[in-house]
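Slide 14.
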Amino acid sequence: MPVKQISVFLENKSGRLAAVTRTLAAAQINIRALSIADTSDFGILRLIVNDPDRALSVLREDGFTVGQTDVIAVEMPDQPGGLAGVLDLLEQAQLNVEYLYAFIGRGSNGALVIFRVEEVEEAQSKLSQAGFRVLEGDALYSL
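Slide 15: predicted structure.
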């Protein structure tokens, strides 16, 4: 099962990011990982949280423009070349990486990276067959 990522479309102005975090905090939703991609006027906040369905609901109720996307979480050796090994495998399988960001989790012996790819199930299968640990959503949310 892929990991559910919440994406929030934000105006690039003071207080918008704080408002998102206040909404999540009030709902007792814990942020596990995040990434922000911005332009001069707008940004996209990508979040991995402990309860993605509830996060989607409370953010919508507070008037944010939000979406949900399937991504994959891959544990890889935390050493030089760890990420290169995963990217080489995806390249050989001709799977395009749209974006990625790191995830720091407790209890992991390796580095965790979140990937957005076009073919999520195929990427999960190729990575697992190559011996990489691909985390299920529930396992990731509880880290």
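Speaker note: The chain has a mean pLDDT of 91.
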